[in-house]
Design goal:
The structure is a single chain. The protein is an all-alpha fold. It folds into two domains: 18-200 and 406-436, Growth Hormone, Chain: A (Up-down Bundle), CATH 1.20.1250; 212-397, Growth Hormone, Chain: A (Up-down Bundle). The chain has 19 helices and no strands. The protein has helices spanning 3-14, 19-33, 37-48, 53-80, 83-102, 107-122, 124-135, 141-169, 171-192, 211-216, 218-235, 240-247, 252-277, 282-298, 306-333, 340-368, 371-392, 421-427, 432-435. Helix 3 runs parallel beside helix 8 (141-169), helix 3 runs antiparallel to helix 9 (171-192) and helix 16 (340-368) runs antiparallel to helix 17. The longest helix is centred in the middle third of the chain and has 29 residues, at 141-169.
């Protein structure tokens, strides 16, 4: 690709997003660059502490359970107290709990603090997603969510490589580095990000939004259910695939080689694929990505070499690249402005539940029926999710009006504040799709 074309593509991809968004994006990248604990927790417990694999699995499940517990609570906090306070509390608490975990030795204490880490680390997600929806124009949201997803994977790819070197030196250093990086994220939020929660004005007729409102929203809860199915499929890349490859005689290095394709492709293709899908029909994208994910994992049943495993990873990674930003954008479109935190919390819950259930599901299916049945089940689940999206999205509501409610006027000390949502729409160039 000519350099001029590449520069233009990059400029068009990153242009038009407010400064607040880029500070939030930077916070996400720094957070993922320091995500060492999730990478080496199992090795830390089994090799360094000498616990059994069963105990390591229990700790992982408790970590996931903490995320399930905090998802809804964090959503309520995001709407009631604001995005910025929720982010600050979540990140400072995460830093403290991760550092504390590094000093725990008793198995009960390790399990309890791991549960606490799961709660605190998951609590920031509804606030981050709600803040992005607040500060980014509706027509730019898929691009914004995609760039954020790219930052998550870029940071995780770098931290995964660094985790091995840090673990050779000191596991405790990994815990303390992650705690420090999380505190840096909190400082970025405190210094650079203003509160973005829309202010409710007297003339607005939108009713108050509670968790009951979310649960009674049939279409949205159906989307949450479908998101849970898709998440169950994607989770097999980290829970079912290594077990199946081990049973087939492949080594840990073979699995590492195959799964590395996932991170490499996301970093390489997320931005160009986003440019391709940005203004396309989200219903079609969700249907295609769900089915592609299911059958991408389904093809694993025919893999007999590391090269073929890598090809199957390519298939479902492409589905992941399309699905992640599109699905998050759909959640925003279906959420009332003053209930974004609760809606995002419920959506986060679907992924937290999948992370909790997927290890048990894959283990039971592989033990009782064999790995081929797990991959066939993935194909069925992906197909069901695709059909569900096709039926539910027939009358998808149009993007909300660009004249959104004004945001809270509170500013972080010394914050560099970009235009408000209304000002950005009034001054920024409109795309052809937006005019249409």
């Amino acid at each position: 690709m000519p350099a001029a074309v590449l520069r233009r593509a990059v400029r068009e991809t990153v242009s038009g997003l407010p400064r607040e968004y880029w500070w939030l994006w930077t916070s996400t990248l720094v957070n993922r660059l320091g995500a060492f604990v999730a990478t080496f927790m199992a090795l830390y417990l089994t090799l360094d502490r000498g616990y059994s694999a069963s105990y390591a699995g229990l700790v992982a499940s408790l970590h996931g359970l903490g995320g399930v517990v905090s998802s809804l609570a964090a959503g309520v906090m995001t709407d009631r107290f604001g995005r910025r306070p929720t982010l600050l509390v979540a990140q400072v608490s995460t830093a403290a709990s991760v550092a504390l975990l590094g000093f725990m030795h008793h198995p009960v204490a390790i399990a309890a603090v791991a549960f606490l880490v799961g709660m605190t680390s998951n609590a920031s997600r509804p606030a981050v997603q709600a803040m992005m929806a607040d500060i980014v124009r509706p027509e730019d949201r898929v691009r914004a969510f995609s760039l954020n997803y790219w930052a998550i994977n870029l940071g995780f790819a770098v931290s995964s490589m660094g985790a091995g070197f840090i673990a050779e030196y000191s596991y405790l250093a990994g815990f303390l580095i992650e705690a420090g990086m999380t505190l840096v994220c909190a400082l970025v939020v405190f210094a650079k990000l203003p509160e973005s929660r829309p202010v409710r004005v007297a003339k607005e007729t939108e009713p108050a939004v509670g968790l009951g409102t979310v649960l009674r929203d049939g279409r949205f809860m159906s989307v949450v259910g479908l998101s849970f199915l898709v998440a169950l499929v994607f989770q097999q890349g980290s829970v079912g695939l290594p077990v199946a490859m081990g049973r087939a005689g492949f080594t840990a290095a073979d699995y590492g080689t195959a799964i590395a394709v996932n991170g490499i492709l996301i970093v390489a293709l997320q931005i160009p694929v986003t440019r391709f899908i940005e203004h396309r029909d989200p219903k079609r994208l969700l249907v295609i990505s769900s089915v592609l994910a299911g059958y991408g994992f389904g093809l694993t049943a025919f893999a007999g070499s590391v090269g073929v495993f890598m090809l199957t990873v390519c298939v479902w990674t492409l589905a992941e690249i399309v699905n992640a930003p599109t699905q998050t954008g759909i959640v925003v479109r279906l959420s009332p402005v003053h209930g974004r935190g609760r809606y995002q919390g419920m959506y986060t819950l679907s992924w937290a539940l999948a992370a909790l259930i997927a290890p048990v599901m894959s283990g039971v299916v592989i033990d009782r029926f064999g790995a081929a049945w797990l991959w066939a089940l993935c194909a069925v689940v992906g197909t069901v999710a695709g059909l569900g999206y096709g039926l539910l999205m027939r009358r998808l509501p149009a993007e909300e009006s660009v004249q959104e409610p004004v945001r809270e006027s509170s500013r972080a000390p010394g914050a560099e504040v970009g235009p408000t949502a209304t000002e950005a729409v009034a001054t920024a160039p409109r795309t052809e799709a937006a005019r249409a």
